[in-house]
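Researcher: I'd like a structural prediction for the single chain below. Treat it as a standalone chain; there are no partners to consider.
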Amino acid sequence: MHGGAFTGTAYLPATTDAGDLTSFSGGAGSYTIGAGRLAARADFLTGGQLRLQADPSGSLSDPAGTAIVRKEPALQRHTSSFDAGDYYGIRSPQAVLRVYKKPLRFGLYKPDNRTRIWQEDKPLRWSTGGMRQSLARGADEQFFGGGEQNGSFSHRGQTMYVANSFDWDEGGYNNSQPFYLSSAGYGVFRNTFAPGVYTFGQPVTTGQQERRLDAYYFLGDAKQVIGKYTALVGRPFMPPVYGLEPGDSDCYLHNANRGERHTLDALKTADGYTQAQMPLGWMLVNDGYGCGYENLEQTAQGLQDHHAQLGLWTQDGIDKLADQVKAGQRVAKLDVAWVGNGYKFALDACDAAKKGIEDNSDARGFVWLPVSWAGAQRCGVLWSGDQKLSWDYIRWQIPAYAGATMSGIAYDTGDVGSIYRHDATMYARDLQWKAFLPAIMTMDGWATDLTTKKPADQQPWLDGEPYTSINRKYLQLKERLLPYMYTLSAEAAKTGVGAVRPLWLEYPDDPGTLTDQAKYEFLSGPDFLVAPVYQNSDTRDGIYLPKGTWTDYWTGRTYQGPTTVNGYHAPLDTLPLFVREGAVVPMWPKGTTSWQTRDRHELDWDLYPAARGTSRYTLYEDDGVTRDFAKGAAATQRVSLHADGKGMTVTVGASKGGYAGKVDARTYRFTVHGATAPARVLLDGRQLPASAWSFDPDTHVTTITTASLPLDRGFTVRLVDDR
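Model: Treating it as a single chain, here is the predicted structure.
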């Protein structure tokens, strides 16, 4: 030691590279490969998938077992091999795997065996600490995935960590997954619970902390890859409809931060939501270490009287879940205190909590968790943990949640306004954009106001005007849009693709979707472009709009993309929000504050006709709470929108299917966005009276209201332009 410096010798683990190929054999979809002591196997699976395993011990193992991959896909037996001199080729209907001989390397190509999908530029390398795969990077190749990566969705040129950092802020990765997706037309999942590091430079290097490779490769475009990945590890679960309503959490029993209280005091908070006319879907009533609970059945019943469900924080495990569910619990939140670094433990707990709710009630399991692994999308909402409020807090969450969708995570969110600090303006800004996430929650009882330095609860009406009205506006809009979001949930359960999407997912050929400007906006479904305000300003710059016509949701002004909007006027009550041309958006009636009290005999449709062509949309409906949908108890209704030179036609199909509580008929309210008023409006060819429709010249919206119409028959509405 000399001053503050020292010299010494560091011993790094010795590395070994795969040597030359020494054996190759197989057929009917499965091939074994050797390079000295290294044993490898390539299994071609149905659906355009490949599983590649390698282990220098000479024996292939599967430590993860069935914990992540519940069922191995069947072999794709229609394969053949050939000797190309420098390599052996294995041909399947979807791809050709090259097995190079000197040294052993792998490359995956399209069926023409000329177009590269991925190619190892160096052989596999291992040490005592892990195994590395090295790939050549394409000139314009982009990389996404990794589960929840706080602050980013696109990883080219970046290093991505897959582990649990307990860092809840930008740069953290607590809900990360050993999966990435490439714009070259593939994705790869490492079937392991070992932490990993992925560097998307030149070359691309990926590795886990284990001396083995066990990788599933999926082929296709981004949505196809997400679909195949989630088919392997578990599709996103189908939430109950109240899970898409706002949630509230706090400790009520003996709260050290808020004084002596009791569990039943949660009902006073529920009263506040009712009186403020704000939707509330569920409440965690023991959200604090050591909080506990009392009077559980009475609390559950009292919440149900407010059209909300009881949730509990399982800070000490889930062994009491059966009794709690029988008492009325329908939401479970898991905790890092007993999950810790055990990724398998976290995943098992998520599966067990969902199962615990479903085994003891007819409800759908609804679970929240802050630490997870690949497969957690099948059982829970991933929650980004305990943060402190700042404008940066609002900023970095935007790409984090959109990017999580690229790993098949359909439900990823953070506390509205954070947990530890409160500011009325930042809270309102945070709430308004999170209203376009499927799942949101306020965390109460922990925050300190940034100005007064005093404790501040965070229910959305407590800051007074104008904040109460602004928060109500967005929570009620979220509630009205539940038919749209619920349909997206049904689609996610089938396809793996969630509602919150980076622009690139819908516009992969547009390089503008990968810029820093587009990083801080997202799509809510394919139709809404949300550009949150994440600075203390009433102006939003750098809003990127991709190709097509986009309508400002508030003013009706249209923009032609691709373009960048600067100087957008966004006072505190205005979230920059744009709707895609051709959008067909189902909505519940104005004033709806609960899925239970909505007017089931009315459905609204917000329509944005395209200048050319036909738009189509299929609404999904079921009872919203039970698991009967899995047995087919659901209904769909198709709506198309077609504009021509003489007007526009809305075609509403019959509602097909049935479920408990489905009505026989309902009225429809159409809001049609367009430049001019129609000369007349026809319903099934008959002219509607003037009292049934109106045109607003300021917003250029035609509003049409029908009589009650039977759901088992379709109808058409025609807006005729005689000019």
